[in-house]
Amino acid sequence: MEEIQRKLELLNYPRSNAPAQSLLFAGVERYALLEWLFFRLLGDRSPFTQQNWQGDSMDRDEENTRIQHLAEIASFLGITSSVDTEAIQGKGSYEERVELLHLIVDLVEASQYADNPEWSVDEQLAKDVQLVDSIAEKQAQIFSEELKLFPADVQIQSVYPLPDISELELKLSEHSKKLSNLQQMVHELASKYDYNPNEDYTEVELKLRSHLESFLETVKYFNLIYTKEIRPWTHMMEVPQLHGFGPAANRLLEAYNTLLKFLGNLRSVRDSYAAMSVGSLSTTTDEPSSITKIILDCESALTFLNRSLSILSTSVAREQGKTP
Question: Which GO terms describe its biological process (predicted)?
């Protein structure tokens, strides 16, 4: 920390005499330092607006806003891999806190006291391009076997010469034709089906969610009844006699079969939607959507329901066999 504070003095940080501990833990001093360092790195073309925080105290909402603002800047600068509010607050080990401050201070120092402070990025890019062009023009001499630049097991241009440009152009033309044919096939398929990937399915999703949640509640109630009323019969020594079911049992089985078809169609809809939407959206996580979770719950409940209702189906069939 002594080295960091010494560099802050060299950088003319106005609050460089702040206690070292206050710079390592969440608080006004740490936020003020990070904000000062970040905007030294961003420069005049900063896409972020510098906030005018007054005083050395703030309420919880102001603190959260300030932390979020600093975390977004840190992510933009590449200091953190994501919008990490915990890093801004100084969470972690003592070494991790010091390392983060050390990194940011070194970046500011390098940008403020560069070897050629008036050398612009455009000039550096021009020189880099010129160097690459020069290497490309003289690659035969630079990468010659006589210079022994490569290990013996590495093949270079003299062994595998570069292909002829006309041959590459011919292959490019062939692949372009194949690509054009594939695109034409895709357009023909798209014209046959009314599919809009940007269509808003919010209303349909809400209705589907409502139906599935209602179905889950029904399954829970049935499971409760089965556990308390029907399951004990399966452990009796005698075959259970289901008196009084009559036509109600047939209606229950018919409703169950309809529900089974519905869930099968629902699974097909899910698979089709997943197949058609591959590549249309970029995701940052592999977590399933809420609809997929509900469908998975329904499938799990259906498996349990199949096992439970097999007993009921057998009993109904036996009762129908006894009826003259």
Answer: microtubule organizing center organization; spindle assembly
